[in-house]
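hey can u check if this looks right to u? its 436 residues, i copy pasted from the old doc so theres a chance i mangled smth
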Amino acid sequence: MTDIPASPTGKAPGADGATTGFDALILDAGSRQSLVAARSLGRAGLRLALGECFAECDPDLPVIGFKSRYCARSVVLPSYATDAEAFATGVIEFVSEHPTRVVIPGSDGAIAALMPVREQLAALGSTLALAAEAELKIANDKDLTLEIARGLGIDYPKSMVISDVDEIPELLAGFDFPIVLKPTTSWAPNSTVRLQAVEVIDEAEARTAIDRLLGAGVHVVAQQWVGGDREAFMMFVVDGEVHASIAQVAHRTTPALGGASVIRESTPMPPEIYASSVSLVKAIGLDGLCEVEYRRDLSNHPYLMEINARLAGTLENAVRAGVDFPLLLWQWATGQPVDRIDSYRTGVRSRWLRGDMRWLRDNSRRAGRPDSLPKGRALWTFATEFIRTRHYDCLDLGDLGPFFAEARITLASVRRSRAASPAAGGAAYKGANDVG
């Protein structure tokens, strides 16, 4: 673990730099959702440390959270992708040296690494701001989640769990292409990168993708592709009771299939989604912050996709719409009464510009595949978004450091993408600091 001095506009640490305490340590500082949490809690007057391990972002580029005026101390940790135990030890060492009331992870990888040391953190007086372990295990496993949904009568796409390549013929016999293949968990024992869902359009692609996912040490959930709107229902639950909620639609994502939201908009609450989401969360027993994701078919019928019990990429838009989930998370984790938020502004729309640029690039490479647009229509959609949307991720006039850091990352992404383009003879470039 390495401490980096605070940004010049941040609150200074103690003179010895070793015993100063913090209200919260927010991890995954390179992600947009962790930045939103830092700004929310910083505006509330809390003293914050932010940590990053560079499992999902480039160590040669700035970390947006470290550049925030609300970051009193920046902490570099070992990567949970290559050594989860060292990552957890680094967090424990920081909390031991700097008494910290709450630890807030922002990714599935950080959550998986910290769950085994939850009691050790508690013994140091620090609360891990997550649901209980048993409930979190269900929420983080797509197969277990669908099993509960099945018992509740909640619709989800036709699905099949694959644990061995010998089951591929059964899949091919029972499903039509395109098929969506999802890892049961995002982080796996045999992988140092986050695993993501992919769509396959023929047998060769299916076999290749299944081999890769099984080889990473996870099972595969195969689902029939559903091509309508993507909707997300975020809520905060205390003792089984909903204290705040918001419905949002993701107009575009990157990657195109189930990736981070690029354009999202707050919408009126659909009654059927509210009812099924609440029943699912109560059946699992989840408390705290969670987001239930759906996708509608072309007949507008919603199908459950997954549930995430952590900070989500749509958090920025939720806060802009009037639902301050990070503050509720702080209240809950510290044992305070949790505020109730009974309404929010609809029609609030925000954009992750770098992600939208990546969506435009990837769309041109995916012609004819599911969730792709003709090139001309895609370019028009991208360009006219500057007229439709006035809120941008990372841009806050009272905290400009992260915006300039994001601009540097975007320029680096563009340069590397060009260098890696087929015309340049390179391999496809994943992106710089691309955290969902």
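Residues 248 and 266 are 4 Å apart (CA to CA).
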